User: What shape does this take?
Amino acid sequence: MLLDQICLTVLFNVFTSNVDSGIQCMLSKFADYTKLHGVVDMPEGQNAIQRDLDKLEKWAHVNLMTFSEDKCRLLHLGWGNPKYQYRLGDEGLEDLGVLDMSCHCTLTAQKASCILGCIKRSMASRVRGVVLPLCSALVRPHLESCVQLWSPQHRKDMDLLERVQRRPQK
Assistant: This one.
């Protein structure tokens, strides 16, 4: 089962490898989701983000895929942010407002721990050469998924994420 999941992840990554062609803003691709982000200090920045969202929507349509509108969110950062509205297809994106980063770190650590548990239950071998590559491929993307945006601020959050990273080495 785990091998099937790894194969599907690899195939999905190959299939979606060209999603960023023609995108002007920064696009971060992770295990099963994508983040588009950019600086909006002038109306041109807002237009660039909307153009890139339109390109992503077109890419999905051409490749017979859809974005899960329930999971598409908008996060404005910075003081005095004009909070422009964006759309993906015909739908406006929901504004998240301000996130509690400690809560986000906890949820990220829980998800990574669940994946580690799945690896532990499904692998007969505990050999470091087998377990560590699986952790690098399946767990690390979840732990690193948002680091560009949230970078843990508190020592307790960093300790929590580091404990999850050390678990497979025991």
